[in-house]
Amino acid sequence: MSISARDADDYAAQLLVLTERLTERLSDETEALEAHRPLDIRESVEETRSLSALYRQESARLKADPSRLTGLSAAHKQSLRKATEAFVAISERHARAVEAAKTISEGLMKAIADSLNETRKPSLTYGPGASIKDRTPQSLNYGFKA
């Protein structure tokens, strides 16, 4: 899907709506992540993903053909610039929140796996070539596929 517009002002208006909607989605997700409620965003992730894909596509189209905005009114140019600045600011904040959530999740998974490995009793052997066996890292799903 892509933006279909009559002229530069129409294209800018549609791009502005897309940018504002994506900014709103990222803002909501960032607030949930910063409040340590990552499950609150699971219902909106698909919408955010599709909006992001459309935004990337339109950004690439605009970069390849800047003439799409030739003749753009000053008012539309200013509102698009402000919306883009707000989007960049919230996307940087969102990236930090996602990275923090990822770090926390990975830390929890490692702590659980380490705990499992510590509680498992190794099988000891005696004699020549004796070694501790069965001390390999454990999968949290015990080898079963979901």
How would you describe what is shown here?
By secondary structure, the protein is an all-alpha fold. The protein has one domain (8-120). Helix content is 64%, strand content 3%. The protein has helices at residues 8-34, 45-64, 74-119, and strands spanning 123-124, 132-133. Strands 1-2 form a two-stranded antiparallel ribbon. Strand 1 (123-124) and strand 2 (132-133) form a beta hairpin. Helix 1 packs antiparallel against helix 2 (45-64) and helix 1 (8-34) runs parallel beside helix 3 (74-119). The longest helix has 46 residues, at 74-119. The chain is elongated, with a radius of gyration of 25 Å. The two termini are 33 Å apart. Keywords: Cell projection, Cilium, Flagellum. Residues 137-146 have a biased composition (Polar residues). This is Flagellar basal-body protein FlbY. Residues 126-146 are annotated as: Disordered.
The share of residues in extended strands comes to: under 5%
What is the radius of gyration? 25 Å
Low-pLDDT residue intervals, each spanning 5 or more residues: none
Please list the strands of the largest sheet in the order they lie side by side: 1-2
> Helix segment count?
3
Q: How many runs of DSSP E, i.e. beta strands?
A: 2
Classification by helices and strands: mainly alpha
Total separate domains: 1
Share of residues in helices: 55-70%
For the terminal residues, how far apart are their CA atoms? Answer: 33 Å
Helices and strands, in order, run as HHHEE
Shape: elongated
Largest sheet: 2 strands, antiparallel
User: pLDDT average, as an integer?
Assistant: 84
